[in-house]
């Protein structure tokens, strides 16, 4: 069973509060005008802080919203590490993604319902911004590599010699992003579940019957 997130100290709570204000301000402005049309100075002004304070928390404009996804990333890695060794990897990944989606609060202490809605908004914004899309793709490649390394370690194989870890890493990201894009397309409806995406993949992988 995944442990509940531990309470944060005062300094950490203050840091998170400032970052939440910046994120809310950024999403508001991005939603009104588009990602590429909003500057860091405007985000800081909307949140009532200085640009210097902004850069103490986020190195780039992209990071103010892309860090939304890191709570899920922490959950995914933790859940992958804790899955039983004797399960098929398809089942391991399906259970991992479904479990991370179903929790009320992520391992990073974020409210999952709010996180899903905000992530859906970021994905919709990325449809109109190559810069934001590039940031999402870069993070996806990092998560894919992380998952592949976990698979290799748990299978006891060399990631550079055995293709399975990288294949499973790619599958996990493709299914996860496909589900997230669908989530964004219907305005973040909470009726979308990763289980649906994994079940759809299982159907596609079934051998054809008849001729």
UniProtKB/TrEMBL annotation:
Residues 16-76 form the HTH tetR-type domain. One of its GO terms (molecular function) is transcription cis-regulatory region binding. This is Putative DNA-binding transcriptional repressor AcrR. Gene3D superfamilies: Homeodomain-like, Tetracycline Repressor, domain 2. Coiled coil: none annotated. Residues 39-58 bind DNA. Keywords: DNA-binding, Transcription, Transcription regulation. The keyword Cytoplasm does not apply. It holds the Pfam family TetR_C_14. The keyword Ribonucleoprotein does not apply.
